[in-house]
Amino acid sequence: MRRGCPYGTHRVIEPKGVLPQPALKIDNDMEIYDNEILIDVKTLNIDSASFTQIKEQAKGNIEEIKRIMRSIVDERGKHQNPVTGSGGMLIGTVEKIGPALEGKTDLKVGDKIATLVSLSLTPLRIDEILEVRPDVDQVDIKGKAILFESGIYAVLPDDLPENLALSVLDVAGAPAQTAKLVKPGDTVVVIGGTGKSGMLCLYEAKKRAGVTGKVICIGSRDETIARVKEANLADVYIKANATNAVEILEKVREATNGEMADLVINTVNIPNTEMSSILITKDGGTVYFFSMATSFTKAALGAEGVGKDVTMLIGNGYTKGHAAIALELMRESKELRRIFEELYA
Amino acid sequence: MRRGCPYGTHRVIEPKGVLPQPALKIDNDMEIYDNEILIDVKTLNIDSASFTQIKEQAKGNIEEIKRIMRSIVDERGKHQNPVTGSGGMLIGTVEKIGPALEGKTDLKVGDKIATLVSLSLTPLRIDEILEVRPDVDQVDIKGKAILFESGIYAVLPDDLPENLALSVLDVAGAPAQTAKLVKPGDTVVVIGGTGKSGMLCLYEAKKRAGVTGKVICIGSRDETIARVKEANLADVYIKANATNAVEILEKVREATNGEMADLVINTVNIPNTEMSSILITKDGGTVYFFSMATSFTKAALGAEGVGKDVTMLIGNGYTKGHAAIALELMRESKELRRIFEELYA
Ligand SMILES: NC(=O)c1ccc[n+]([C@@H]2O[C@H](COP(=O)([O-])OP(=O)(O)OC[C@H]3O[C@@H](n4cnc5c(N)ncnc54)[C@H](OP(=O)(O)O)[C@@H]3O)[C@@H](O)[C@H]2O)c1
Ligand SMILES: NC(=O)c1ccc[n+]([C@@H]2O[C@H](COP(=O)([O-])OP(=O)(O)OC[C@H]3O[C@@H](n4cnc5c(N)ncnc54)[C@H](OP(=O)(O)O)[C@@H]3O)[C@@H](O)[C@H]2O)c1
């Protein structure tokens, strides 16, 4: 059996010397190396920014969505959207474990797991697309995938429906980072607070900011705002277009009596929202960009352009314990669980 | 006289509702609004990532570089490279000050200043390109520019040559952020430590990390490494290709006895160096991406893909006092000053 590198560089076809994530093409042959895990895939959870782009390109046509997805995997050996660069994650059953991992992993053949590394670096083979659920970004397939030695995963819990766990784990990094960043008394704005990761961030932020803090939810639709309001996830609700920096600035100024936010969390799934995020942050405050539609240069030059001394964080999808933290929210909050079961499970 | 918005939104032609930086086209008519400053421009300092791209496109031909630069400004009303999205900065003389700024600004007509906001949002008119200095990314022109009310600037100091001040101010954010991030005893790697911003970061890092720390310089050429070594700016020097993550990982592992870095500062001017930066950072450490060639998704998904719990910062070009901090380095270090005068002044 062939020996593999922990990071999966042995599967990179081109360009040479890079890791599987930035690679243009990786080897998706399903014969495993000695330190790989073979997964029988059940469901893909496509990253929201990626799926939004694919749906637009396909004009909503399901067969066309399937065709685009297959052509991405044919071309790259992984489901990495060439426009957004992003992936998503998957759930499936452990089918084979490389002998070099014996004693190193807790996994057993037959375990149901979710991979917590992006599909944008995961070798994937799609044999058949069974069902596309465009509203929740989930796609059931027949197919196989490979988890590298350095790849992280979560065994699916017994007490939560699979699809619910999948949709929560997809964005697990966001609430876990929120938990680290919010201090009591903080004013926190979640741009895209009406979305999947946004709602988890709102809940976590409200818990941490406490009674002396203020948590503000920004969304663009009456319907989604009403849902979040009913569940009481924020203190203030703003309906506005996140790409309109001037509108967002004025509305947040009003909601904060001109003080602006200590922390802004950006969880939208559309481009051109960097300036809105920067302008509503206090000098010395922090912007946490979780959105995969964030442009590095727009953020860096935008902040400089208006002379804003703010800390801007790139939303690392991983932080220690993120899966456990995110799943626990489904047990902690009946309201969140109800919404997530309705929308995603 | 027309009234302007502090952020310059009154000059945005398209798309509407955005700020001048992300805008595709802004109005570069040199009739000022009541809160604007008109500058008689002397020299443009084109951002390194941008100029590298332009030089490549022009195959090094000076006339072609001029043509590309003029076509960018014709099309956008500002010098924003459509490929890299970045700008640069300029020096010139204050020619007119809008009446609404009276009592609000310390500037007087005739002051020589450097703008510290990016050219990617600065209304600019080029009347003539006088000289292109491709080695230092500087271009002398006849032309005018506008500084918005929120725009930051520095009055040029008397004791430093203009071109020297310009080249230091171009990257002023980098050493100022380094000063904030480095703690005594830290292991710090500067990828691109042989470059302009890189050398300033090395110097600042060595000062802060102190005798118990370790500062590592990575560059790709013998010549540039020899220069940095002679000036004793780092403790360890590594020659390697920053796009080859595996090579960088192995060399830094060796240099740090497997401990890796507390802080990695990325100041290269080429794409695809995110993974190198992430892999050589300790769990719990920080990556500071100053390079404008950084891809947001490659960084976010790359860290997740290898399960690295690192804080990743978007290099905000501005932080309080950055101009003063950077210029002071030219007075503090004879070595740095000598190199900078040789290379850039
Ligand atoms: N590793 C990572 O960092 C990582 C991992 C997973 C996902 N992500 C990214 O996180 C982002 C959010 O993912 P998600 O699953 O939470 O997406 P989602 O459920 O689709 O939520 C998107 C949010 O954006 C809001 N939005 C869209 N257009 C808007 C506009 N013009 N103005 C204001 N709000 C607008 C939506 O609000 P309305 O519905 O009210 O319009 C909604 O709240 C995506 O960009 C995704 O790529 C990152
Ligand atoms: N607001 C902001 O955040 C801001 C402001 C200004 C500039 N910047 C960005 O900062 C970056 C650096 O600017 P600068 O003026 O300091 O540029 P510079 O002087 O041209 O330095 C570039 C550095 O990259 C290194 N490099 C290039 N290719 C490499 C490779 N394959 N392997 C290893 N090292 C390599 C060079 O090393 P060798 O010469 O040894 O090859 C050099 O040290 C640029 O991307 C620029 O856009 C950002």
From TrEMBL, chains A, B:
Cofactor: Zn(2+)
Domain Alcohol dehydrogenase-like C-terminal: 205-293
UniProt keyword annotations, A-Z: Metal-binding, Oxidoreductase, Zinc
Single GO molecular function: metal ion binding
Ranges of residues in domain L-erythro-3,5-diaminohexanoate dehydrogenase N-terminal: 10-157
UniProt keyword Oxidoreductase present: yes
Family note: Belongs to the zinc-containing alcohol dehydrogenase family.
Protein name, per record: L-erythro-3,5-diaminohexanoate dehydrogenase
Organism: Tepidimicrobium xylanilyticum
